[in-house]
Input
Amino acid sequence: MDHGSANAYERRRRLAECGGANFCALMLALALLFLVWGLARTDESAVAVENRGGDCGVHGAFIVHTRGAIAWEVLTDYDGLSGFVTSMHSSRVEQGDFGRKFVRQEAVAKVFFIRRRMRVLLEIQEVPKRRIGFQDVLGKDFRSYVGAWKLSDVTGGTKVEYELVAVPRSAAGRTLCRKLLRDTAQELLEQVRAEMLRRGAKA
Output
């Protein structure tokens, strides 16, 4: 092999090595990007809606990197809900007989160009730091409205779950029920999660 050929071979070898190194670096960067994206996704609210005949059921969950005590504080801030949940026009605690707790709420949900007002009087049942069950006893806009918030500890934070099964009284409400509940739940979960993070950072 003459000197010129040797130099050409050496240049091709170095280019191949360089190209291979760049390719490996690119693949590593992409792998790290997808890993970070995947971790970020675990913090987002994921809402799934299921239809149960004439009923509408919604289930949502997210993981938030804050202590369970902070998450519980946000979920039980019944009087302050309208301060961080935009669809909530009013929310206030009312005490009943024999230690029963009620929360009277009025909210507005939007689907397409339609706005629907929802009024409920929720009887609350709490299992401290773990579960908040609720059921509408007003029966004005819903024939049935039953759900719960659930908290569980996970590595590095808290898992929050939300479930609701509702039967609107109006035929129009039942027609729009799936989308209305899904969109309302998505917004609710995102804003509750944001408030948990805000209070966690402040604490």
Summary: The two ends are 73 Å apart (CA to CA). The first strand starts at residue 46 and ends at 52.
